[in-house]
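Structure ticket #2291
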Amino acid sequence: MLLIHCPYCREDLPELEFAYAGEAHIDRPADPSTLSDEEWRDYLFIRSNVKGVHFERWRHVHGCGRFFNAARDTVSDKFLTTYKAGEPRPDLGGKEAAE
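Resolution: structure written out below.
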């Protein structure tokens, strides 16, 4: 069973308590009305899908209900760290995949 650490509840809980919410650290365009159809498509749908460390958003749906970020290795499915939403991307000591 995969355990995920909620940085708000400060507990390691089963994956079934959480919902994946997409890639983390995606900035919303300052003025979406100026984007072309292709740029808008890229913002909404195109993600990095890296092999290795990937920064993701998760929500603790069966607990505190809050969103948080996680660094997860997509090859091993291991969570390297979790951190509160709004906090900067952590330095993982060179474990990040090339982006």
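Closing remark: The domain at 17-28+49-90 is CATH 3.30.2270.10 (Folate-binding fold).
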